[in-house]
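ESCALATION

Customer reports they have been waiting on this structure for their group meeting. Please prioritize. Original submission:
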Amino acid sequence: MRIGILDYGVGNLYSLSCALKKLKAEPEIVASLSNKKFDGIMLPGVGAFDAVTKALGRNRQLILDAVEDGAPIFGICLGMQLMFESSEEGEGDGLAIFEGSVKQLPSTVKLPHMGWNVLDKKDNAILDGLKDKSWAYFLHSYYPEPKDKKIVAATTNYGKDFTSAISYRNVFGTQFHPEKSGDMGSVILRNFLKNCKK
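Update from on-call: job pushed to the front of the queue and completed.
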């Protein structure tokens, strides 16, 4: 199973690639999705919203085309934030796959939100097999606020309840890092790979 990991100049691509290889997938880190055929695409995390929106270039339309074609897409941390229209972190335009914007966590808590925290999960494909209150590893100061609450797959509390996972048809995302979340993260990546087989 070939999984394209889009390299737009930021993010810890190696740990994600290793996590996918352990699950018998064949990840390929690519700077461009053009002329590539993948069973699924991953948008990795870590970095600044504005810098990444500028770095997307032609990949912006290729991602949107892949979503429209029904290809499984998974955004991690910043990769999930890119799926929305805008962010308080900058002035760049997101992919606008979903309506909504990215907000900063409250100033009443220490930023970034770094370390382990729990998920309040809903029934959905990407978190299938996980218990409620599972622990995940976070590293972020911003979170997405979807207009359509039906896409929210899990929430987490840090200063406030925020969206920590989304799931809608062929598009998935986590604000946390499954590749750094041990066994629970492997369950999530395995669920994504199941969608890539369909």
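Sent to customer with the following note: The longest strand covers residues 161-168.
Escalation resolved.
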